[in-house]
Amino acid sequence: MRLVTWNINSIRVRLDHLARVVQEINPHVLCLQETKVTDGLFPRAEVEALGFSHQHIYGIKGYNGVAILSRLPLTEPARHDWCGRQDGRHVSAYLEGGGGKRLEIHSLYIPAGGDVPDPEANPKFAHKLEFLKQTMAWFRKHGRNSGPMILGGDLNVAPLKTDVWSHKQLLGVVTHTPVEVAHLARLQDSASWTDAVRSFIPPEERLYSWWSYRARDWRKNNRGRRLDHIWVNEPLRGSLAGAQVMTSARDWKRPSDHVPVVVDLKL
Length: 267
Fold this sequence. Notes:
This protein is of the alpha+beta class and 267 residues long. It has a single domain (2-265), classed as Endonuclease/exonuclease/phosphatase (Deoxyribonuclease I, Chain A), CATH 3.60.10.10. The chain is 23% helix and 26% strand. It has 7 helices and 14 strands. It has helices spanning 15-25, 44-49, 123-142, 167-170, 178-190, 218-221, 234-237; strands spanning 2-7, 29-33, 54-58, 66-70, 74-79, 90-96, 102-109, 149-154, 194-195, 210-211, 224-225, 228-232, 240-245, 261-265. Helix 1 (15-25) links the parallel strand 1 (2-7) and strand 2 (29-33). Helix 3 (123-142) runs parallel beside helix 5 (178-190). The longest helix has 20 residues, at 123-142. The mean pLDDT is 97.
């Protein structure tokens, strides 16, 4: 089974890009973030025409929005709201397999956190840290007795030195500050998550999934960050079969600033 997570940065604007991803790498499940569309305007028919007739969506007008799109049946769709907000950042569902086997899937979009890494001076950063705390607490409780589980999302934190173009220069920049990295580590520990991509691409190797729109030549500049992640829990760890980052998508016309991240599982 192939699962993709992707901050698509508006599914209606980049529906042709989604079609290209499907054509080029043929995923079974898509976890999307920043769909930027209400549920009523989500392009269900167009997505179904791509082969994804099972759709669990949670949209907000103009911003945020997450989805799980699947070729296979999804059951028990759930929306998860944090910090007292209903803002389209977290959905889950179960993928039903043969013999009663099921896979729990999460699509998660953690807040960006604004520009100033100070929770007292910046409410957006405070929200990000609280969001991480609340999701950590939920997964710590929920994950104790869970079966196979996978999480794909724009987690808006680049935890490793090799997940950013310059560890030294970005230590004080939101997405790579020590406090964010520590919070993400606690979230990862909450359900004994394994970083699926880094299981195949070693931590010593630089790896990015996001490049700013500000760079005229993103490849030459290559000031990227790895903000998009796929995690699996312990029952699924032995099923990992491969991973890749679809860097070529950043070259497409009117691209998202994020590229698809891909994990293969033997299920």
